[in-house]
């Protein structure tokens, strides 16, 4: 999935590299080229963000936008963190308080702050059973499904190009032993609500990584097995999913699981990235510090565990402040957990690969519109490039039995019935990041109804 890696080595990671380069320039010691190498290998990072960047990872925090007027808070945020997640400001109740009336002011403030300070943004969250606006309560069935899809489309379009990763769907699996879906108004619109949300998000912002996010999935258990089966199924059917977020809320009763790393790894082996998305650990002192270090080490041991986000900055910023679960105390002083986290990041680990294994769906997307009449059809296919752009593409689709392609324009086909693939011709091989190109074909019989997949060629 080169679009993911392109993002990591491209625009969203550039500020980190610039920062690394600027320090040596300012001290005027040696040339930029030499000192960048030194910065990466010889010196330990003195902030969480710099320490994580040594292995190509980000270190982020949840941010409550109303705290951006607290200078002590912002001081720590800007010094330590390279990614932000909106704690509440991008949720459905916050962004669409009345049907189809969107309010983005708070979310926009966070995104602007992130951009001004070279941080990435994790969008949280497009579809969730909690924190829905009141007006959804009276909806069900198709009306609710359409409202959800409109929400996903509008919000992802508003932030298009500015979000590193979206938690498209949050907490859709049930706790306990079933391994099945959580009952919710969204679930009652039909099992396919999750994939519908992911498809809508991909269409709206092809450059954002699309993630499923949940809690109590950190170790292997019935709930994480359920998520695993869903991701496996999505990958097999070409439903666009790029990553899985593990919230990682740890307490005395729910400590860092011993198979945390193995669990992250098995998801990566399905062809997605993983991230720790809401890390916090109830407690204090060395026990808390050890748990943080264990969590960090698990991520660093997995090459496609691309970043860690803690669920706030100071204990007093936590919505569970009595659990003192964060890295800074209420005065902004670093706790033992901070030092343990920094040390674990500086101890190094696997490096996030500059290119990730090809999975196809991230490079480009294909959407098909069909005009049919009795006995024949014309299909128009739009190819949309991911953020890395394309220099050649191929679209695969399956025709229903009895259908035959009789004419193709702006592409070259292999096969005329059943599984057919269409390759670019010379003038439309190159497609810029996020841009699109069209081709078409005519046939006898019924036109295609299933999904078309697109890959770099
Ligand atoms: O650990 C809690 C998190 C679980 N995973 C998903 C996260 O989105 C969730 O975050 C928390 C926020 O940190 C809280 O700030 O989600 C809570 C709601 O489920 C948020 O709490 C809500 C309060 O319940 C509301 O009363 C309040 O109006 O925060 C709202 C805004 O301050």
**Residue runs with pLDDT of under 50 for 5 or more positions:** 1-41, 355-360
Number of strands: 19
Bound molecules: ligand G2I
Strand order of the largest sheet: 1-2-3-4-5-6-8-9
- Sheet with the most strands, sense and barrel status: 8 strands, parallel, barrel
Structural class by sheet pairing and helices: alpha/beta
- What gap, in angstroms, lies between the N and C termini? 12 Å
Strand content range: 15-25%
The coarse overall form would be globular
Helix content: 25-40%
Mean pLDDT: 89
What is Rg? Answer: 23 Å
Number of helices: 13
Description:
The strands form four sheets. This protein has an eight-stranded parallel β-barrel with strand order 1-2-3-4-5-6-8-9, surrounded by five helices. A four-stranded antiparallel β-sheet has the order 10-11-18-14, with no helix packed on it. It is of the alpha/beta class. The chain has helices at about 1-10, 15-25, 30-40, 50-55, 70-80, 90-95, 105-115, 140-160, 195-205, 220-235, 260-270, 285-300, 335-345; strands at about 60-65, 85, 120-130, 165-170, 210-215, 245, 250, 275-280, 305-310, 365-375, 375-385, 390, 395-400, 405-410, 410-415, 420-425, 430, 435-445, 455. Helix 2 packs across helix 3 (about 30-40), helix 11 packs parallel to helix 12 and helix 12 packs parallel to helix 13. The chain starts with a helix and ends with a strand. Mean pLDDT is about 90; it is low at about 1-40 and about 355-360. Helix 12 (about 285-300) links the parallel strand 8 (about 275-280) and strand 9 (about 305-310). It is globular and about 75 Å long. The structure holds ligand G2I. Ligand G2I binds next to loops. The site of ligand G2I has 10 residues, from loops.
């Amino acid at each position: 999935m080169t679009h993911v890696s392109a993002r990591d080595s491209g625009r969203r990671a550039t500020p980190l590299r610039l920062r690394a380069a600027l320090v040596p320039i300012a001290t005027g010691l040696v040339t930029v080229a030499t000192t960048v190498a030194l910065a990466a290998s010889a010196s330990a990072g003195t902030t969480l963000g710099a320490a994580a960047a040594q292995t190509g990872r980000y270190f982020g925090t949840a941010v409550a936008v109303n705290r951006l007027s607290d200078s002590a808070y912002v001081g720590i945020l800007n010094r330590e963190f390279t990614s932000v997640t909106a704690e509440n400001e991008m949720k459905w109740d916050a962004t669409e308080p009345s049907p189809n009336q969107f309010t983005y002011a708070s979310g926009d403030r966070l995104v602007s702050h992130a951009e001004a300070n070279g941080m990435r943004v994790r969008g949280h969250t497009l579809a969730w059973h909690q924190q829905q606006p009141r007006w959804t309560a009276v909806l069900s069935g198709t009306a609710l499904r359409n409202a959800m899809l409109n929400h996903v489309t509008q919000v992802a379009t508003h932030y298009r190009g500015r979000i590193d990763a979206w938690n498209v769907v949050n907490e859709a699996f049930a706790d306990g032993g079933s391994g099945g879906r959580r009952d919710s108004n969204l679930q009652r619109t039909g099992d396919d609500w999750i994939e519908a949300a992911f498809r809508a998000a991909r269409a709206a912002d092809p450059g954002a990584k699309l993630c499923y996010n949940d809690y109590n999935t950190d170790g292997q258990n019935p709930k994480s097995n359920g998520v695993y089966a869903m991701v496996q199924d999505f990958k097999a059917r070409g439903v666009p999913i790029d990553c899985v977020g593990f919230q990682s809320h740890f307490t005395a009763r729910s400590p860092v699981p011993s198979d945390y790393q193995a669990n992250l790894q098995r998801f990566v082996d399905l062809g997605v990235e993983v991230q720790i998305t809401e890390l916090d650990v109830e407690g204090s002192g060395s026990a808390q510090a050890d748990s943080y270090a264990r969590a960090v080490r698990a991520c660093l041991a997995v090459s496609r565990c691309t970043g860690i986000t803690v669920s706030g900055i100071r204990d007093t910023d936590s919505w569970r402040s009595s659990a003192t679960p964060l890295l800074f105390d209420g005065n902004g002083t670093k706790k033992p957990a901070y030092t343990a986290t920094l040390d674990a990041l500086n101890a190094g680990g696997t490096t996030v690969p500059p290119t990730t294994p090809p999975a196809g769906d991230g490079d480009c997307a294909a959407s098909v519109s069909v005009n049919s009449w009795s006995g024949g059809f014309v299909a128009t296919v739009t190819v949309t490039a991911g953020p890395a752009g394309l220099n050649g593409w191929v679209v695969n689709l399956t025709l229903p039995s009895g259908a035959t392609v009789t004419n193709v324009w702006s592409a070259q086909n292999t096969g005329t019935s059943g599984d057919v693939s269409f390759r670019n011709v010379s003038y439309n091989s190159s497609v810029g990041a996020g841009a699109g190109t069209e081709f078409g074909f005519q046939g006898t019989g019924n036109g295609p109804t299933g999904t078309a997949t697109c890959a770099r060629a």
